[in-house]
């Protein structure tokens, strides 16, 4: 069953000489308009441009209904396509971030420098010192802790604050003076 929707109205001259309005239906136009049809479940099917029909075919031709796809059939395909695209983007790793930094590289690039990041909803500045202490400063205050290199990981220990306790992470370089740790936190070294 084809459903026709009026798409626009245009003035026409009536037999009495006055002007009236006539509706142009989407199913009546052979080219350029969209056709709608109800599927077996009674829902509107996805419109198919009538221009995609073979040359000379009329939109109301019996074979035209075979070209329509219901939304219920289209939704799983769209989900699969989005999942594939997301997986492809997630798998695209730049060569600079292929391997985690070693302890020697971390010490050379971060020790004695100011590190800025955002964590727990606030801007944080960290200073890793050569003597094994680290200072974290934020809007609410600062806290001193300790740090040590353990293989290709850096372990920090804070006695109090939002990051209380010991946490060990690896680092990867993602750009000039930009790094990301294994928890997904990005930061810059100045």
UniProtKB/TrEMBL annotation:
Keywords: Membrane, Transmembrane, Transmembrane helix
Stretches that traverse the bilayer: 73-93
Name assigned to this protein: DUF995 domain-containing protein
Species, as recorded: Notoacmeibacter ruber
